[in-house]
Design brief:
The complex is a heterodimer of chains A (95) and B (631). With 95 residues, chain A is an alpha+beta fold. Chain A has two helices and five strands; from the N terminus they run αββαβββ. Chain A has a five-stranded antiparallel sheet, with helices on both faces. Chain B is of the alpha+beta class and 631 residues long. Chain B is built from eight helices and 29 strands. Chain B has a five-stranded antiparallel sheet with strand order 1-26-25-24-23. Chain B has a four-stranded antiparallel sheet with strand order 2-29-28-27, with helices on one face. A four-stranded antiparallel sheet of chain B has the order 3-4-5-6, with no helix packed on it. The longest helix of chain B has 26 residues. Classes of the chains: A alpha+beta (95), B alpha+beta (631). The interface between A and B is large, with 41 and 40 residues. Chain A: InterPro entries: DYNLRB1/2, Roadblock/LAMTOR2_dom. Chain A: Its main location: cytoplasm. Chain A: Belongs to the GAMAD family. Chain A: It holds the Pfam family Robl_LC7.
Amino acid sequence: AEVEETLKRIQAHKGVIATMVVNAEGIPIRTTLDNSTTVQYAGLLHQLTMKARSTVRDIDPQNDLTFLRIRSKKHEIMIAPDKEYLLIVVQNPCE
Amino acid sequence: TSCDFADVQVRPEEVREELTKEDLERSVDLYLTETETIWMLDMPSVVVSVESEEAGRILERNKIYADICKTRPGNDRFVEKMMQTINGPPKNKEVQCDQISMEDKGVTVTSWDLYDSFNVSEIKPTSKAEGARATTRKSSKPHPTTEHHPTTPVCSDTDSTTSPTRVLESAVHEEEERHSRAILTSENFQRDLFFMERILMENIFQPKLAAYRQFPVLTDPDVTSDTGTEAEQTEQGKEKKDKEEQEEAFITPSILSDLNKSLEEVLPPRLERLWSYTCDLTDGHGVSSMAWSKANPDLLAVGYGAFDFKEQKKGLACCWSLKNPMWPERIFRCEHSVTALDFSKASPNLLAVGMYNGSLAIYDVRSPNDAVLMDSGQSPNRHTGPVWQLRWVEEDGGATGEGKAERLICISADGRITLWFIQKRLDCTDLMKIKRTEREEKKLLGMKERKSEALISQQAAGMCFDFHPTDTNYFLAGTEEGYIHKCSCSSTEQFLETYRGHKGPVYKVAWNPFSTDMFLSCSADWSIILWHQDSQTPMLTLNSTTTVVHDIAWCPKSVFVFAAANESRVEIWDLGASILNPVISCPASPGEKFTSVLFATNTDCLLVGDSKGEVRVFEMQNLAALNSDKV
């Protein structure tokens, strides 16, 4: 459907290294990397997302985390968290 | 070892007593009573007070006892004797009990935790519903998976018992699959994907977008940029070599000689290509028209149609947003090639599209599907030739008597300029137009015009029109024969003036937005002509190429500057600088023809559409005329 198309487009973009969709237990639903790396990413990023969300909500409980971006020397990791899943895209921003 | 289900002890679920409303109102009696005194320990004392009654007796007994103790050692009455007792054999008894499992549970209390607990009434029903859904699938078996709700502390604490039986395992997989499918199709996921794509685009296109907005372009110090930023940095000219591969502009020698007189640091004007709006969908279609949205100057509508009008394909109208240059926001598929489009000003969500078969469609860009809002297909007065241009024009007052009404006006190859208005606005299944005031364009072939005749033999095909920028009563219309007529909204049969000068069909006319007596026209006879509205002969004829000029547009910032798209080049002319040659000329790659130009209203950029379906965005740099005031 349109979801598939958009996912494919994102995967095909310039500089995108990996695209992952994992559910709340860390089991990958859709991924372009191998399973072990995906599970590693999922576990680590899940904890980080929890911490980030907890921080945001501690300051104002009516607020909530919508998006998380981590910029490192080599790539940028973008996470769209939700109650049931994590959408993770790793991009290499230099053209 | 396989254990049966019956043996498994499950802690019974605590059943909460449902309180009804009556229970709350019933008066409840509470009784307070005291229990009997419970004796825990009773130790009688061995000390008696001297003043009590028994004191004398006890004193005497004490004295007798003391005497006996004294006489004991030599007395016959006391004999020492020993005895042996029988000790019973000890017996060991063992009792075994189940291991008492201990669980530690701890919760870190955070302020959002407290907040959620108070709002638990909103969250609990959803988790209950999900639990109910899952349990109905497997009738009597417990949950194979525990539900995780990391943000709510009120979790249902059902033990997860995974059974090794095959039946349950397959059910687990199915449940997971269903769950993942549910995730993928959920609205939240689609929305997140949408945002993710836009953010990716922002990352990729950030320097270009910054140049578009005329911000200084910053480079990331950590990132090794190989292709480099597009806009020139004044401090270092480090990536100059990379610009050559991206650039298509070069400077004409006449301008160079002019600029050599000025400072050497001033760079010659050029077109810097920022990006292009293109995708797989639009490949192969030619760009026939482009229009900005009146409400949002970053939203662009582009109409695609087969440029070679002998082969007709299905047309396309796409709305592109600045935030995503790689995929259009809206895609409207049309039956026929799109030849003209325009956004409405009064209702900025309406996009009117004119097509090659003469029909007109109105789309609502707010809806994500490409259903036509209104169509002119059933109208008896519809056009029989391609609609070459359409525009929403604001009329001041006019026939309707109300304030500023906005009307849709089109010109088409069947020789009619028609005015459409929508009576049943919100009805999307009905006809689009009800009444049409015709302005018949009657023209004889090449002869001197005769004044208002009732029957004229033929109608000349109209190609383009433009309303006067300040007085919307007048407009110009260009025809296929090469004549340009100045007409008025009030008289439907006579022209006010005719301008003759072109030898081929006039593809575009445009009033100068500042100096409103002048207008420009371009035609298939390779020339661009500048006219003054009072004189019937051309003021200035500009010939620069030997190809058809498809489109011209005045720059909204300067009185002298305009852009022209002919088949092989895009040219920017600055009439204040030179009338013989364009200031900037940008050639096309072979196989592509430039078909339309559009200036950006809020920035110094030019959009050029070509026959391969690509809309390139160029930034005009170092154009001195852009900074001058209007004359």
